[in-house]
Amino acid sequence: MNTNSYLYQKTISSTPRNYLPDTESSVIAVAMSGGVDSSVAAFLFKEAGYKVVGITAWILSGAGRCCDNGVVDAVKICDQLGIEHHAIDLRQDFASGIIKEFHEAYSKGETPIPCISCNNDIKWGSLLSYSINKLGATHMASGHYAKIVKSNEGFNLYKSDEDKKDQSYMLWGLTNSQLEKTVFPLADFAKSEVREIAAKANLCVANKPDSQDICFVTGGMTNADYLTRILGEKPGNIVEIESGTVLGEHKGSFNYTYGQRKGIGIAYSEPLYVVSIDSQTNTVYVGTKDKLFGQRAYAHKLNLINASLPETFDALVKIRYNSSPSLAKVKITADKAMIDFDEPVTAITPGQAIVFYDPLEAKEVYGGAWIQGEEQLMAGERL
């Protein structure tokens, strides 16, 4: 590796050391969205002396934040760096998998995170497979802010050193075998450093803003606009959960999420929050803030990255991307988990990811799962 490269200088001071493969024998396929992070990831590997190829998943027909301009910008960056670029048509997989699951989750009263599903099924599914089997790559890289640490037991996922941009919560679904073939070059970089590197390298995306929204909700639509167009208006009752009093009507329970306060449209003596959604009866239940708290969560479709964990273990647990981790005891059986928090937490939301970190510093990602809703639990899908 070029010892004067940005990547080398960062990696040698990394604690714990971020995993990077051997320069001479490695071929890195960089998953490129056309954004600044993945573009700088490709630049860092090229500068460090790796053989690099760019690869982009074509996931949408027509305009979309991850397609059209994204693909064009990825091609421009690859041309600028002098590396090959491949666009892989995954539109059918994305439509029948990620988008369909998104619609189904909201229709069941859940609040899904399609970006995590895309990471699990598209990027580290189809795209990783294509990189290894078709392009002859040894590893796939992305511009995610997370860290991979190699140990005697295998490969483990850690938080990025840049806390404000850490994306480890979004990557809990990766398996040990996938991590073995993955590299995260931005693990030790701050976002400001990434922008600075892009500017110094004269990358055409140096000032391109970060994408914050769901890629397939386009044309200035809100989530509610999009879901109403897909699912149609479905009027139902808004009910005060303690008394059972009908306080008003809504146009679709899919327009609400647990913990929501704004936009309920109900005048009441106290602030009201969405505390439960019953998609079977199309009822949105609201209540005062104290009704949001709970101390137990059930989750399914479990993935444990750290295979040495016992059936019951302590962890610092996050129930949403921006939440602070809370201490809890996790009990696992097969692909399910029961999580008992030491203290009550707010708005345990069906469809969201629940991610387990080490109980001391919340740096190592033990794994994660999807929070279950009442309908799944009533159907017997619990420990």
Please name the defining characteristics of this protein.
five-stranded parallel sheet; alpha/beta; Rossmann fold; 9 helices; SH3 type barrels; Elongation Factor Tu (Ef-tu), domain 3; 3 domains; 383 residues
Helix content: 25-40%
| Gyration radius from CA atoms, angstroms | 22 Å
The CATH architecture of the largest domain comes to 3-Layer(aba) Sandwich
Shape summary: globular
List low-confidence stretches.
none
CATH class value of the largest domain: Alpha Beta
Instruction: Provide the spatial order of strands within the biggest beta sheet.
Output: 12-15-14-13-16-17
* Class derived from helix and strand content: alpha/beta
Number of domains: 3
- The end-to-end span amounts to 49 Å
**Total beta strand runs:** 17
Beta fraction: 25-35%
Protein architecture, described:
The chain has helices spanning 6-11, 36-48, 69-81, 91-107, 114-133, 176-180, 191-200, 223-231, 374-378; strands at 27-31, 51-58, 84-89, 139-141, 146-151, 154-159, 182-183, 236-240, 246-250, 273-278, 283-287, 293-304, 312-318, 326-333, 336-346, 353-357, 364-371. The strands form three sheets. The protein has a six-stranded antiparallel barrel. The chain has three domains: 6-200, 3-Layer(aba) Sandwich (Rossmann fold); 233-287, SH3 type barrels (Roll), CATH 2.30.30; 292-378, Translation factors (Elongation Factor Tu (Ef-tu), domain 3, Beta Barrel), CATH 2.40.30. Helix 2 (36-48) runs parallel beside helix 3 (69-81) and helix 2 (36-48) packs across helix 7. It contains nine helices and 17 strands.
